[in-house]
Amino acid sequence: MNDVFVQIMHPGVRINESAIKEYTRAVLRKLHLSINAITIVLVDNEYLRQLHAEYLGDDSYTDIMTFPLHEPGEPISADIVISVDMAEDNAQFYQVPVEEELRRLIIHGLLHLSGMDDATGEDQKRMREKENELLQTLPFGNDFLKESVGN
Asked: What is the Cα–Cα distance from 3 to 48, expressed in whole angstroms?
């Protein structure tokens, strides 16, 4: 395994980068994924909406997009772009800590890189079950966010 990077592009959030890197590495080990480089990019709603429109032709808001940058058969290189705003909204809706929702989104992106998909209802169910399993087997404290200004 090479390395995990964190890029913060959200002006209102201070992130504990080492905690995110440590958690991402733990999930990668659990999934037995060989990587070259993974960058977790933390953005606001508008930035991710623009990416969603540009790359998928969908002008709606989303919480995560995963961009594989490697060729098939090579170690994984990818950007996982997460909307911190949407993570905060989802956390409030599901009544969980924001850090738990951020962990779920990191897991979700890594599951896509492992070959899982969520295109159908059955795929979504399998992916959610795997997310829940990893959240339970890789518990970490609520230490991702140092400070957030919210929406």
From this structure: 24
In terms of C-beta distances under 8 Å and separation of at least 24 residues, what long-range contacts does 60-63 make, across chains too?
61/86, 62/86, 63/87, 63/90, 63/105
Q: What count of residues does the chain have?
A: 151
Cα 130 versus chain centre, distance:
14
Domain range 3-148, CATH class: alpha beta
Cα gap 108→118, rounded to integer Å? 10
Band (pLDDT 50/70/90 cuts) for residue 151 is very low
**Residue 82, strand partner residues:** 42, 64
- Residue 5 token pair: 């990077």
* pTM (two decimals): 0.91
What is the token pair recorded at 64?
Answer: 């995560």
Do 90 and 103 meet the contact criterion of CB atoms below 8 Å apart? no
pLDDT for residue 85: 95
